[in-house]
Amino acid sequence: MARFSLETISRSNLNLVAWPKVDPDKILDKTERELVRRRIEAIHLLLDGGPRSRIAETTGISSKMAMYLLGRCLQIHPDGRCYGFRALGSYVHIAPYRRTAEVSKKVIRKDGTERLEATGAFQLLLVSYPELVQLIDVFIFKLRKTQRSFSEGSQAPKIHESRIPIKALHKHVLDWLRKKGLNIGL
After folding, report:
1. Is residue 184 part of a domain?
2. What is the number of structural domains in the chain?
3. pLDDT in tens, 44-100
4. CA-CA distance, 16 to 118, in Å (whole number)?
5. Taking the model in full, what pTM does it have?
6. Could you list the residue range(s) of the whole structural domain that residue 62 is in?
């Protein structure tokens, strides 16, 4: 894979006029507003082709950081266009969280207590077992028997409650996991 540089980017993607805009004046936090303005200016200076040292002198942002920000701006937004200047905010998430670590990792806190690091573990479970998503959908949305289709061949028990308590749903999910023979730590 080629290294990301200005030469590898299509000129049509660098048309800043077509990029989605951000109005820094609508950002309420003063420091965030100033940061977005400096980042926009850094992108403009980077693409103007002048000396890279000018970016840091003018904006306080290194040319390396400006390249990183440009890469974020060129990522595709869910609306199909590039993120453009929308990617320059501090808390803009370009990619969804994806768990890569093992779930069974225990961490010892500073106060000596143990805890299980499990951020994203349930999402990973749902991706790994789509039939579990189906089971949850059936219980939450109360699909008719004709709409249900389980890969394991059995129908979900009929629920007559007008509202499903979260404990009941939790119990059904745990029972399903036990039936599958998954180690759920309980």
Report:
1. no
2. 2
3. 999 988 888 999 999 999 999 999 999 999 998 988 889 999 999 888 888 877 767
4. 41
5. 0.57
6. 6-88
